[in-house]
Automatic annotation (TrEMBL):
Starch synthase catalytic domain sequence ranges: 5-179
Taxonomic placement: Bacteria, Pseudomonadati, Bacteroidota, Flavobacteriia, Flavobacteriales
Gene: glgA1
GO molecular function: alpha-1,4-glucan glucosyltransferase (ADP-glucose donor) activity
Stored SUPFAM superfamilies: UDP-Glycosyltransferase/glycogen phosphorylase
PANTHER family: ALPHA AMYLASE DOMAIN-CONTAINING PROTEIN, GRANULE-BOUND STARCH SYNTHASE 1, CHLOROPLASTIC/AMYLOPLASTIC
Keyword Glycosyltransferase: yes
Protein's organism: Chryseobacterium taihuense
Top enzyme class: transferase
Pfam families per the UniProt record, alphabetical: Glyco_transf_5
UniProt keyword Transferase present: yes
Full protein name: starch synthase
Catalytic reactions on record: [(1->4)-alpha-D-glucosyl](n) + ADP-alpha-D-glucose = [(1->4)-alpha-D-glucosyl](n+1) + ADP + H(+)
Length: 256
C-alpha cells in the first residue's frame, strides 16, 4: 500500500554502518518502501564514526537550536541530514557534541560501556520526537530498530501521552541480538525528571531490559534476527503485543 508515511528510527543503517544485520535490514526496508512510493524518513544518531564529508551531511539550521533537558542540564540538539547515496531518501542525524562526537558507539577502547549511554538514549529519543514535530510531518508507521530506539515508545506513551501528534501512528519494534550492557543505576532518576516511573526495566537497567520494556508500548513486535538469544526470545514469546516471526524484506509491506 503506497503513500504511507513511514518513519524508521534506528541506531544503524548501511552504508553508515557496515557488516551488521541490523544496518543491512534497515537499509533494505527503507529503500523498498521508498521505491514503492511511500514517504520514508530515517532518523539515527550521528555517531563520530560517520564521516560528514564522505556522506555529505549538512546541518539543518531551522530544525537545530532546540535544547533538551537531560538530568537537569540543557543539551543542544543539532540536526543533520543527508540523502542515502544514490537515492532520494532522506536520512536525519541526531547530533550533540557531548553525546555523539566520540568515535566509539557504546563501549570505550577497553570494552567498558559508557556511563552516559542512558542519557544518550534519552536525548536521541526526545530529539527524534521533537524534530518530527518541528518538521510537521505525521508518520502513519513508526518502525524501531536498535536498543536506543526503544526509549521512543516509552516516551510517546508517558511523557508525550497527552500530545495528540502521534496518536494515530502505529509502532513496530524489531528485535535484534545486540550486545547487552548495563545502564547507569540512576537512570530512573533521570526518567523521573520527565515524570516517567514504575518501569520494570529499572529493576536491572540495561540495553536489553529497555528493549523488553518497550514491547509493552508498541503495536507490533517483529523478529529482526531469525533466532533471538535467551531473554529476548523469552520476552518475545511472552509478550501480549501482536507479534510476527522473522520477515524477509519483501513481506514487510504486508505488515504495514
Amino acid at each position: 500500500m503506497p503513500n504511507q508515511k513511514i518513519l524508521y528510527i534506528t541506531t544503524e543503517m548501511y552504508p553508515y554502518q557496515e557488516d551488521t544485520n541490523l544496518a543491512a535490514v534497515v537499509n533494505k526496508m527503507a529503500l523498498k518502501m521508498h521505491q514503492e512510493g511511500n514517504d520514508v524518513r530515517v532518523f539515527m544518531p550521528r555517531f563520530g564514526q560517520i564521516s560528514e564529508r564522505k556522506f555529505q551531511l549538512h546541518e539543518v539550521i531551522r530544525l537545530s537550536g532546540m535544547n533538551i533537558i537531560i538530568n537537569d542540564l540543557d543539551q543542544p540538539l543539532i540536526i543533520k541530514v543527508a540523502s542515502l547515496p544514490g537515492e532520494r531518501l532522506q536520512v536525519y542525524f541526531i547530533d550533540n557534541e557531548e553525546y555523539f562526537k566520540r568515535k566509539q558507539y557504546y563501549f570505550d577502547d577497553e570494552g567498558k560501556a559508557f556511563e552516559d549511554n542512558d542519557e544518550r538514549a534519552i536525548f536521541f529519543a526526545r530529539g527524534v520526537i521533537e524534530t518530527i514535530k518541528k518538521l510537521n510531518w505525521v508518520p502513519d508507521v513508526i518502525h524501531l530498530n536498535g536498543w536506543m530506539s526503544s526509549f521512543v515508545p516509552i516516551y510517546l506513551k508517558t511523557y508525550y501521552q497527552s500530545d495528540s501528534y502521534f496518536k494515530d501512528a502505529k509502532i513496530v519494534l524489531s528485535l535484534y541480538n545486540e550486545k547487552d550492557a548495563p545502564l547507569a543505576s540512576n537512570v530512573g532518576e533521570k526518567l523521573q525528571f520527565d515524570n516517567i516511573s514504575g518501569l520494570k526495566a529499572l529493576d536491572n537497567p540495561s540495553f536489553e531490559s529497555f528493549v523488553i520494556e518497550s514491547m509493552n508500548y508498541v503495536d507490533e513486535v517483529v523478529k529482526g534476527d531469525e533466532f533471538l538469544n535467551g531473554e529476548l526470545d523469552k520476552a518475545f514469546n511472552e509478550t501480549s503485543a501482536s507479534k510476527s516471526e522473522y520477515l524477509d524484506v519483501d513481506s514487510i509491506s504486508k505488515l504495514y
